[in-house]
Amino acid sequence: MITLGYAAQNAESPLRPWSFQRRDLRPDDVAIEILYCGVCHSDLHTARNDWGGTLYPSVPGHEIVGRVTAVGAQVSGFKPGDMVAVGTLVDSCRSCPACASGEEQFCVQGAVGTYGGRDRATGETTYGGYSAAIVVRESFVLPLPEGLDPAVAGPILCAGITVWSPLRRWEAGPGTKLGVIGIGGLGHMAIKLGAALGAEVTAITTSAAKAEEAARLGAARTLVSKDPEALKAAAGSLDLIIDTVPVKHDLSPYLPLLGRDGTLVIVGMIGPTEPFHTGLLLRGRRRISGSAVGGIAETRELLAFCAEKGVAPDVEMIEMQGIEAAFARMEKGDVKYRFVIDMGSLKREAA
Question: Is the pTM of this model over 0.90?
Answer without folding.
Answer: yes
